[in-house]
Write the structure tokens for this entry.
Amino acid sequence: MKRSFTVVVSAAIVAALSASLSAQWALHANPGVPKGRDGKPNLAAPAPRTADGKPDLSGIWMRTNRTEAPGTAPAGQPPLATFGNIGVGFKDGLPYRPLAADLVKKRAGGLDNPDALCLPQGPLEYHLDPQPREIIQLPQKIVIVFESNYGIRTIYTDGRALPKQGEPQPYWHGYSVGRWDGDTLVVTSNNFRGAQTGMPGDGWLDGKGDPFTDALTLTERFRRVNYGNLQIDVTIDDPKAYTRPFTVRVEQEIVADGSEMIEFICHENQKFLKLTGREN
Amino acid sequence: MKTKVAVVLVGIGLLLAGWPVAAHHSFSAEFDAEKPIKLTGAVTKFEWTNPHAWIYIDAKDEAGNVANWGFELAAASGLMRSGWTRLTLKAGDVVTIEGTRAKNGTNNANAQTVTLASTGKKLFAGANTQPQ
């Protein structure tokens, strides 16, 4: 429902403001967008491929806003995650160890959410933020630029191995390598900064504060279902925080109207610390 | 330009009320949903910024004292996708803003709706609500 609002509203605004909006935010139609007989983008067209025959994930992507009631994911499919709560689709919640359960309690209220602090978001926050992200697929690497908080991830697809935990130093975005399993890009990441640092913003998977530690190995399976839709199945394997690995699904759809990423400098006018009494 | 934006937005503002446009901060950390506020006054400053745009107005309280109030909107990037521009409001425009007060008791609030006095048009504020 929300998704159709977005489409209808975007179309209404663009149609009604085309003359004046163009002065503010020009649309540059992408000639690669497949069109249907009606001349409109055909999002159900096959996914494009790169010169080496792999699916091309490149494009600007928005989350779909689709949600599911807990326990209603179709058989064999991981439940949908949301920005605020990646475990919302599990009837019994996430398999917390005591460390994780305690952290979630302490984080209620969101004061240390990295998103609110203009720090790099957690990996699921990035995938599920209402702002778009752009995937740029190159022959030896894939770069994802996230509009929210200007995060940049590099996924090496040149065949290198994943480094050992602790080598190199932990990164906010972790260290990521990707390989193709048929038409699915399998990205494995480790060396994340985790909640054990105790630093504000470290080790948040989602807006609720579901944590991860430096023991996290993240596996993301990217599948471009068709031209318009991307599915990312994300497996959290963090034995310090959870009693078993679990997998959630993210759905994104392509931005096909020629609109662009918009500059987002989070510290430009940041008043969060002032409003929460932590800065004068 | 401003009029066109308002005309378009008036029809869709209510539909959009639950649509998070680049919602950013933890709403409950900053604002008290139990303390609604509605003020009318002239815009003194319109900050077209991220992570949130801000509108400042000079408004009278019940005792007739004028004070400057700041209202937080969604991010400029999100507002832009909803049809706002940096020119949507200018200093001197009289607006009525409904929202919820800051928890810290200062003259700040979160804007839910912004209504232009000159036209009566209600602009969607793209309020800072916690993304779902």
The first helix of chain B runs from residue 2 to 12. The helical segments of chain B are 2-12, 27-30, 76-81.
